[in-house]
Each structure stands twice: as C-alpha cells, then as structure tokens.
Design goal:
By secondary structure, the protein is an alpha+beta fold. Among the domains are: 84 residues, Tumor Necrosis Factor Receptor, subunit A, domain 2 (Ribbon), CATH 2.10.50; 58 residues, no CATH class. The protein has six helices and 14 strands. The strands form seven sheets. The chain has a two-stranded antiparallel sheet. The longest helix is centred in the last third of the chain and has 29 residues. Pfam families: TNFR_c6. Keywords: Disulfide bond, Membrane, Receptor, Signal, Transmembrane, Transmembrane helix. It comes from Gymnodraco acuticeps. This is Tumor necrosis factor receptor superfamily member 4.
C-alpha cells in the first residue's frame, strides 16, 4: 500500500516537470494560441503588435496619433513595432500619441507659433495675449511666457474731486456778475459739489472731509465778492455826491468899497426932489 502511494506521487511529480518544460514561447509579432491542452503561436492581428518574445495570449494595441493636438503619423504600426508619431513645428511632445503648444507659444487655427514681442502666453495650448500697459511705470518687464508687472499706483483718490472743483471754479470766475447777485447760492452749490463728489470704487465717508484746495477756492470767491461790493459802493458815492462849485462871492480876494460921507448928505444928494 505504501509502495503504491509512492508510485502515484512520483508519476505526478514527473508530469508536472514535463508540463513546465513544454511551455510555449512565441517570437516577436506573435502570441500564444491555446486549444484545449495544446498550445501554438500565431501572428498578432491588425493594429496590434508584440515587440518581444512572450508567452502571452494577447498582443499590445497600437497607438493612434492625435492630430487635434498637432501630432501626425511618422511610422505605421507593424506586428513587431508600435506606431510612431511626430509633433508639428512649434509643438512639443506630450506623450506617445499627442503633442502640446508650450508656454511662450500661441495656438491659432491648429498652428503653434512663438509669441511676438509685446505678447505672451502663460499656459499650455493658449493664445498669445498683449502685455498690459502700466500708467504707474513698469516694475518687471514682460516675457514671452509672463505678463508685465506694474508699479503700485499711488495716485491720490481725491484727484477726480480736484479736477471737478477746478472746472467749477473756472466757470464761476467767467460769470462774475452772477456771483455778485447770488453769492450765497454759488457758495452753497460749490460746497454741495465738494461734499458729494467721490472717486470711483471708493465708498464716501459719512463725516465731512476737509480739502485744502476747496478751502482756497472758497476764500478766492469770498474775496472777489467783497471786492466787487466795495467797488460798487465807491462808484455810487462818486456819482451821487459831486464836489460843490466855487462862486465869486466866496472868493478870498474882494475889491475895496469907497466910504461915503454923511449918510444924510448922501441921501440928499441921491434924492434932491424930496422935501
């Protein structure tokens, strides 16, 4: 009984060794084909390849060039080699089947070309964009793959208020007569304009704001009004109070008067007909 078991074990072991030695190895361009317990090799089908000796029952799928990314066919797939793709001018390889338009290059109508001077692209497969214009000056110059960086704008937020106020003051000076008639109205209008004008993008404060330029303008307006009133008063005084004329009777140099004799005699001489 023990001998029988030993014999069965020995036969089984040798069968396993024989099956290991009988593994089918196929060459490039082929795969293993198994029918029952029988194995053989056969060629890879179309659009498949096998680039090394193998014991696999499957071949590898050939890649396809993605023309939408600028990748074109360089070499067709065979049973032993994979497809080879080529990137068009300006494009760079992304993977075996696709390409990309790199930073610093612009993608337009399926073509990838380097950005011109003054333009940039900071992302893959994007169009070139123009550098921004810096009113406050350039801090860092732009490149083909980055935009210009501008200096921080330090323009006062009250610049718009001052320009508006200057325009109003010029208008007031050109209409001096109207200011003389309605000085209180003009002052009130100017004050209202100053308090309600605010720079775009900034919230107007609830409390009153002091503007040195506005105060100077108000002083000029008041001085002009006072001067005009004084000039009007002087003109009226000169017109309605003329200088009195000097008469002969008031002259300091008078002619001498002859003294007559007795008053009674003079009277007789002047009136001889009286008794």
């Amino acid at each position: 009984m023990v001998l029988l078991k030993l014999l069965i074990f020995t036969l089984t072991f040798y069968e396993l060794i024989f099956n290991l030695d009988a593994v089918t190895i196929c060459s490039k361009g082929q795969k293993v084909k198994r029918v029952g317990s029988v194995e053989s090799c056969e060629s890879c089908p179309d659009d498949n390849y096998q680039d090394e000796e193998n014991t696999s029952q499957n071949c590898k799928a050939c890649i396809k060039c993605d023309e939408t990314t600028g990748s074109v066919l360089k070499k067709k797939c065979t049973q032993e080699t994979n497809t080879e793709c080529l990137c068009l001018s300006g494009f760079v390889r992304s993977d075996d089947s696709s390409c990309k338009c790199n930073k610093g290059f612009g993608l337009k109508r399926g073509e990838c070309s380097e950005c011109e001077e003054g333009f940039f692209s900071s992302s893959i497969d994007s169009q070139c964009q123009k550098w921004k214009e810096c009113k406050s000056g350039v801090k860092f110059a732009g490149k083909k793959n980055s935009d210009v960086i501008c200096n921080v704008d330090t323009t006062p937020t009250t610049s718009n208020e001052r320009v508006s106020l200057l325009t109003r003051l010029t208008s007031h000076h050109s209409h001096g007569g109207d200011k003389a008639q309605n000085p209180a109205t003009n002052i009130k209008t100017t004050t209202s304009s100053i308090s309600t004008t605010a720079a775009p993008g900034h919230t107007r404060d609830k409390g009153p704001q002091f503007h040195p330029f506005a105060g100077a303008g108000m002083v000029l307006i008041i001085i002009g009004i006072i001067g005009l009133l004084v000039l009007t008063a002087v003109t009226c005084k000169l017109r309605f109070n003329p200088k009195p004329a000097v008469t002969k009777s008031d002259s300091l140099c008078r002619s001498p008067v002859e003294e007559s004799g007795d008053d009674s005699q003079s009277s007789l001489k002047l009136n001889p007909e009286e008794p």
